[in-house]
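ok trying again, last paste got cut off:
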Amino acid sequence: MRVYNFSAGPSMLPLPVLEKAASELTEYGDSGMSVMEMSHRSKPYEKIITGAEASLRRIMNIPDNYKVLFLQGGASLQFASVPLNLMVNKKADYILSGQFSTKAYKEGLKYGDAAAIASSKDKNFTYIPKIKREDVRADADYLHICFNNTIYGTKYNYIPDTGDVPLVADMSSCILSEPVDVSKFGLIYAGAQKNVAPAGVTIVIVREDLIGHAREDTPSVMDYKLQADNGSMYNTPPCYPIYIAGLVFDWIESMGGLEAMKERNIKKAAVLYDYLDSQSYYIAPVEKEFRSMMNVTFVTGDADLDAKFAAEASEAGFKNVKGHRSVGGMRASIYNAMPYEGVCALAEFMDKFAKNNPKG
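nice, full thing came through this time. structure:
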């Protein structure tokens, strides 16, 4: 019996995708072998990776002047890959809205003049800093943001106006949750293990004019142009996660695309936020205008009660609702694959727990 898995990542995948993968586990098509066994240079795998890219381009409406790369190393490797490839003038701006944007900023400091032009650390990252075009240095090589903050449960409700400065966004925990105008970004990257595929593949969508300027000491596997010129196959790619990603892209198309995903996700998030706003037992720390559709955070205000909630929720089949170790409390990650019924069931459990565990 499958549980409701609210893990922030690796996270649950759509059941039809898992069932399709299971049916092809030992033999893909008429190839006589599993995807996990075939050469990435073979005709069957070439069809898989090119098909996955084509599907992603369709559902995200990616312009022709952008390259799509399927890389390794997770989003964390991109913290270094971005400055190595884009920091031509050795100057870049960052907005700090949580742990991962801060890590990216610290990595950027190693390669040049990285400036934190705004931060929400003053309120424990419970909001997204608002900036104007004049806040971004005109000679910066890029502005880096983390579009959705998995740990703190916040999301940008606007796209920063950067003028001619390329906007770089880590979208690991919100990619494919709603439509996004790719043309407003110079580069988008995302670890796939939250909304796309098993851990192992990282998607990079980068405007063509931004590649080909990597530092001379950039490792070859981190050079966007080298990877683009080789179709993401300069080295052996993460074959099976790319295969699963392709199945997920197909599933999204079959569900109506990203507009349909957005509608589903708004409906799911509303169940939890409406409940949280209707009572006083739980506290939702994030400022309302910056609430994430993907990661809903809440606390009771009592560490012992939080621990009891997480334990009892797990026993009841609601797995991985314990908050990140750095912030505590609870977190329900409700990515695309989480069904509406699972969110409703969690809200019912929350209400029952509150009634059975009154605060002192």
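cool. The radius of gyration is 21 Å. Residues 4-12+257-356 form a domain with the Aspartate Aminotransferase, domain 1 fold (CATH 3.90.1150.10).
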